[in-house]
Amino acid sequence: MTKTWPIILSPAEIRELVDHGAATLHRRTGKRRAAWAACQPGDRLWAREKFSSKLHGNVLKLRYPADGKGGEPKLVPLAAVPKKYLTEGYVTRPAHYMPRWACRLFLEVVGVQASVEVSDSGPSKRQPEISIRVKVVQGAPPGAADRSV
User: Fold this and answer.
1) Cα 135 to Cα 110: distance, rounded to the nearest angstrom
2) pTM attached to this predicted model
3) What's the rounded Cα separation, in Å, for the pair 126 and 146?
4) What pLDDT shows up at residue 70?
């Protein structure tokens, strides 16, 4: 069964995905990030990023700082927006507060590779890392009712 995972991305990772349509994401693994070890090809990711929102008529206008000042806003009908997001003026929210409905990038996992990276403090302190190759898929991921992790 395909799983859907949220992933926080940096502005540089967002720009690479928007410009090239694919990227390799590197994530540290550990007790708090054990879920990445279960990520498999075919799984879907929805990208969390910093965003701003503003009421604009009968839609909520979303802007993403990774686009710079010239980026096109995403327009979301008010019927799809929870009331707590309906505020006057631009409100900027950090990536970890991005709800799924505000997401603009949905990704498909193409490959997963685990590796061990040697830290600067020597070979005795190895930090496991996982590399996830992804490609951008258009629109909401299929099977929106799939189990989100």
Assistant:
1) 7
2) 0.76
3) 35
4) 75
Which one has a higher pLDDT value, 100 or 115?
100
3-state secondary structure of 76: strand
* pLDDT band (50, 70, 90) for residue 142: very low
Average pLDDT over residues 30-57: 82
What ranges do the domains of the chain cover?
1-49+105-141, 50-94
Cα–Cα distance between 134 and 115 in angstroms, integer? 17
Please give the class, per CATH, of domain 1-49+105-141. Answer: mainly beta
**What stretches of the chain adopt beta strand conformation (E)?**
4-8, 22-28, 44-48, 51-56, 59-63, 74-77, 91-93, 106-119, 122-137
